[in-house]
Amino acid sequence: MGNEKKYGLSSAIIMGLGGAIGFEIFVLLNYAYFDLAGPSMISALLFCGVINLITMLSYSELSAALPEVGGEYTYTKAAFGGFISFMAGCLRWLASVFGGALAAVVFVEQLGVLFSVFAPPIQDLILANAALLIVGLVIVLVFLAIRGVEEATTLIVAAFLAIFVIFLAMSLNYTLTPRNIVPEASGSSLAVFFATAAYIFPMFVGMRALVAGAPQIKNPGKNVPRALMITTALLTVVYFLVAFVSVGVVNPSEVDAGPLLNVAASRIMGPVGAMLFALAGIFASVSSVGTAMSVQSSILGGMSRDGYLPKALLSAHKRFGTRYIAIIASSLFVLFFGTSGAVVFLGYAASFGSLLVFALVNLSLIQLRRKMPRLDRPFRAPFYPFTPIAGVVMSVLLLTIPVVLRDVNAESALLSSLGMVAVVLVTYYLRMVKREVDFNRLRVAVGGVCLGAGLTLIVLAPAIAPPAMFIIMVLAGLVSIIAGILNFLVSARKID
Amino acid sequence: MKIRRLVTTVTGVAQEAIGLLSAVLAVLLFFGVLEVQAVFNLPADFMPLYLLILVAFSLFSIVSGAFLIREGRETT
């Protein structure tokens, strides 16, 4: 057991880069550049790097003080206890579902780009059968995950960095069009800037892999914070340079030319570059779908172990020892959202889940400083309490601005996230309520809501229901009223 | 008691069905499948509101239906 901590600083940095550098750069920059901020997307990237750095300071302190397995789930549990940690686990899971689904969509997109170079008819075939390909990809990855096949993170990181370095080196021979990357100082321009930052934020959040791997790192109190800082700096520089070159090569009006990075690569490096980037995108997305399913099954397993979810999710495969039920359950969600192909919605949804988790982690730091002042902290976040407060404020800002801008994808993503929080709340209450009186109070509340909803449906039906829906709405309203009365009366009597 | 049990169970099952159908309708509306929005002539500006109402309604219907079915089975 004592020999488990075996990775040094350089391995920790690779772990962080491996988690962060992925498919996101191939997809998120497109909408951010062509539809949102234009060239000032680059400033939004730097802003994301700063926000990430601020929250990574909180992660560093918490991971050094509580180096157990579990990451955010462990920190929020120590700070706030059951419900918040359950919510953090669910949000992390949700972000992973949306991220995995987005990666599956990117897989098909990059496959199409790859074939567009030498076999355009096959590209059309691929795009026409996107959903089928996603189903096939997820089934293969589920099969591999159940068999316990691991990926080679170091190799993928090295390949990515090599491709980016070649891309940047070859861009030196290319005349880049100068563009204004600073956003205008008007209210609407700044709002778009923040919305862009919210959208591209998932490009950084994968770095949490480093925190999750803290128990395997030598001297985590020292190495994890250092690795987090170095990884953030490296990542911001790499992203900045790649985006800067791409923006200098592709005009904001060329929205139909294809994915930003692939178009820039084909212009700078020719067909070989286009193929290299498409291959990198394919490998990154496949790896991300696999990682997402593994993370999800691990979160579901953890919450099941703590009694929040059914124990069946902990069941291990007889031959391979992997949690096959949790893996299959996770893959179904990835499949469902992946086959929708709703790229922008998935981008925002993955971002919002992560931003909520980041806010909770920063709040956990503040709470733990107050609750456990004598806890051994090998690393302390500098400028406390300003850093965690800034992290919370930035997260809330990024969560709300895209919605204020009435971006329909952001609205849908936020509503989906809030809907999931509501489901989490009800699930937690149902699983954790032990006393009969609490259960009956919940039933009274649900009964009251159903009664009100049923009455509203019947009253509003003549005014808002289309003719075909009128009878259905009235019937649904009647059923809701009867159900409300039954729940209300029976439970109210039991409380008395 | 038999009639009450029957009413409770039937109402619970009906509410589960309504909740699930509302959830399916929300998904169809959200992803624009089968042109549901055009079929029901729903204005695009109010889509997030319709979705919110549908999701909330389906959530409460499913939970309430589950309570009633559970009660119907307990009294058996």
Gyration radius of chain B (Cα, Å) is: 16 Å
| Overall pLDDT metric of chain A | 80
Radius of gyration of chain A, Cα only, in angstroms? 24 Å
The chain-level structural class of chain B is mainly alpha
What's the story with the biggest beta sheet of chain B?
Answer: none
Q: What do the pLDDT scores of chain B average to?
A: 79
| Approximate helicity band of chain A | over 70%
| Percent of residues in beta strands of chain A | under 5%
As residue ranges, the low-confidence spans of chain A are: none
Quantity of strands of chain B, as a count: 0
Major beta sheet summary of chain A: none
Question: Could you walk me through the main structural features you see in this protein, from its secondary elements to its overall organization?
Answer:
The complex is a heterodimer of chains A (496) and B (76). Chain A has 496 residues and is an all-alpha fold. Helices cover 77% and strands 0% of the residues of chain A. In chain A, helix 5 packs antiparallel against helix 6, helix 5 runs antiparallel to helix 13 and helix 12 runs antiparallel to helix 13. Chain B is an all-alpha fold and 76 residues long. Chain B has three helices and no strands. In chain B, helix 1 packs antiparallel against helix 3. The mean pLDDT of chain B is 79. The chains are: A mainly alpha (496), B mainly alpha (76). At the A-B interface, helix 17, helix 18 and helix 19 of A face helix 1 and helix 3 of B.
Structure summary:
The complex is a heterodimer of chains A (496) and B (76). With 496 residues, chain A is mainly α.
